[in-house]
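Appendix C reproduces, verbatim, an entry submitted by the partner laboratory led by Prof. M.T., so that reviewers can inspect both the input and the predicted structure.
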Amino acid sequence: MIMKKQDIKSMDLQELTAFVESLGEKPYRAKQLFSWMHQKLAPSIDEMTSLSKSFREQLRETSTYTSLRTVKMLESGIDGTRKYLFGLEDGNVIESVFMRYHHGNSVCVSSQVGCRMGCRFCASTLDGLTRNLTAAEMLEQVYRIQASTGERVSNVVVMGSGEPLDNYDNLVRFIRLLSDENGLHISQRSITVSTCGLVPEIQRLAREGLTVTLALSLHAPNDEVRKTLMPIANRYSLKEVLPACRTYFEKTGRRLTFEYSLVAGINDNLEEAKRLVRLLQKERGHVNLIPVNPIKEREYRQSDQAAIEAFRQYLEQHGIAVTIRREMGRDIGGACGQLRKSFLEEEKNEEREEMRI
């Protein structure tokens, strides 16, 4: 019987040690291998020159080695933000974003190919969910970007394409590997996980013993408006979501971020701001206002600057901690899913042209 090849980059050190021993190698070889993958960021097994040729051959025969290839990279002329389109082994593509801030470099990674949550203002959901990413495929987005830029990544946000908590096991494995002291050792406090509000998974994450920041995609102060923007609101009401967020804070001590995309004429008026104050006045966290990135498939428009500022001021005056997200990479399609969507459309157009010929 042919043995299934093992995904070694998704293994923790204990699992990797057991795997290496099963190949007849000494346990210390696992630590060397782990270091090549997660510290030195080797793009292939061939690069691992401290491992014997026979061991490397064994690894090629018994395991898969995830390494993403860069299909496209766009760099903003405004702020130096880079957007990467990475190709996966099965032909799918995902996108990731590299952003420079005064407090360090941040990478936004995808957790799924596509997304099934259906949020109305997000390009990631337009073609639905194709599949989950493995922990290795999530890590590789950080690794290839750090190797490409030559700059240390200090913050990671899981806010790209996909709903991270819909890929729960791979997400938790990714966090543990990313923060492992034998790897890049990025502090869990510097990792943010975004969710549209999957209540059971938020409660489960609270019990993992992690210290990552949880960001709830709120986007409306009541269920009525939220349902028009986010189909998930039909499954979990705010009366269920907010207590789950409270549980997360109580278990981890980590204050939440409430993401609020401002859409002109829908959720950006002062009446909505008043409702938001009433909703969040007892919650432990802050509001991150996001001027929505328009996508051509939807008619949503970004709120004007005066409306954004009035909304922020009202929250602040009523004791809500609030920030306005700095827009990064607008000139290169910085919003989630935009680059992947345009790439897939180009491919379809090319296929149609070939069929005509």
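The chain has a mean pLDDT of 91. Additional entries are available on request from the coordinating office.
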